[in-house]
Amino acid sequence: MQGRTNTILFPLAVLGLLALITLWIDRTVQPPEPRVDGTTRHDPDYILNNFVTTKTDATGAISHILKASEMRHYPDDDSTELTNPHFTQFGVGKPTTTIEGKRGHVSSKGDVVEFRDDVRVVRPAFADRPEMTLTTQYLRVEPDKEIASTDQPVVITQGPKSVVHAVGMYYDKKNQTIQLNKRVRSHYERPAAKPQASKPKAASKPRQAAAKPAASKASKSTPAGNSKNAKQPTKTK
């Protein structure tokens, strides 16, 4: 009788164990229930107008300044949205670069700043290089690495005569290099040569002919009384 009871209870115990394992697996793979405390919503926890932040390097010099007409911070992903962002990057021995757009996004760590809609980058002229302007609809900037990149079409204007069109760009400010990915088209006009000023000819001095006065010979007049051909008077008796 006891052996028969053990024979019946053993399969029941196995089935119960399998049921518990199945329940545990089901609970494990199921997504967590949505929280209703508002932490999962993408709503800003604070908003700032005329936002300005400044970062310095190890020596205390200003590295870059980020401005925006409005800044919104979101606690769910610790990100920041910007309206009309304006970024200025400084560097020792390097030109100051400015970047602006209609919208911007800052990562939670602050190491990536994204610009969107009518993005414009200006690097002023320095040394023997003319001013460079870049326009696009999207630009990813890593301020600490001084790197800017995009996978969107770009237009680069350098000086008044050089224009480059491309799709995709990688700009390294530290090394002053720029890489264009594809569909590159360039237009360049050679500056017109400056006309050389003609040297004025030296005025020639007029030659003055030394006029020698002609020697005039005086004509000798013979008096009538001394003329050999004069006839002597005839005496009359």
UniProtKB/TrEMBL annotation:
Superkingdom as given in the UniProt entry: Bacteria
Biased composition (Low complexity): 193-221
Transmembrane regions listed in the UniProt entry: 7-25
Polar residues composition bias: residue spans: 222-237
Pfam families in the cross-refs: LptC
Ranges for region Disordered: 185-237
Keywords: Cell inner membrane, Cell membrane, Membrane, Transmembrane, Transmembrane helix
NCBIfam families on file: LptC_YrbK
Protein name: LPS export ABC transporter periplasmic protein LptC
